[in-house]
Amino acid sequence: MQIDLDGATVAxxxxxxxxxxxxxxxxxxxxxxxxxxxxxxxxxxxxCPLRPGNVAGDPRxxxxxxxxxxxxxxxxxxxxxxxxxxxxxxxxxxRHPRFSMENASILAGMRTLAMEFxxxxxxxxxxxxxxxxxxxxxxxxxMLSHTPVGxxxxxxxxxAAVLFFCDPLNTYTTGQMLVVDGGxxxxxxxxx
Length: 192
Known about the structure:
The structure is a single chain. By secondary structure, the chain is an alpha/beta fold. The chain has helices at 18-29, 59-76, 97-117, 155-166; strands spanning 9-14, 33-34, 43-47, 79-86, 121-128, 131-132, 136-138, 153-154, 177-180. The strands form two sheets. Strands 2-1-3-4-5-9 form a six-stranded parallel β-sheet, sandwiched between helices. A hairpin with a 3-residue loop joins strand 6 and strand 7 (136-138). The radius of gyration is 16 Å and the shape is globular.
């Protein structure tokens, strides 16, 4: 996917993982400039752990970081914040209750920020299901038996969703989670 960021400053806050790293690379490849301070970025990627078994972090701390950035963006007149989180934010897994709850809390915070800082700042999330590179980088292998498309996703598919939210032509989407999970969250058989 090609977008034109025309020199927008891009920053990453939170956990580094292969999906976040690829998203930053794609944003830079589409005209973004890497910034070192999340509070002066035009585009902020808030990256959370994508694999169960990892603590998603204190949702209050992530919210506070994103809110500080949103205040700065509002003062400058515009900005984008994209949360990268697990699809369990929208559909909890019985196998991973705490991880699901932490991600759901982050999703609720994202929506709150969208309401508070719109229309100047657009705040969205990409919910990532089972994604593989050479190994599983997101999700749980159990998701694959309940994914209607019958395969794990790839990093590029998750990155395309991030680019959609960051595209300057996208001016009306805020407070949404675009789930890249092969249909797992559609409710396909929940016995795990």
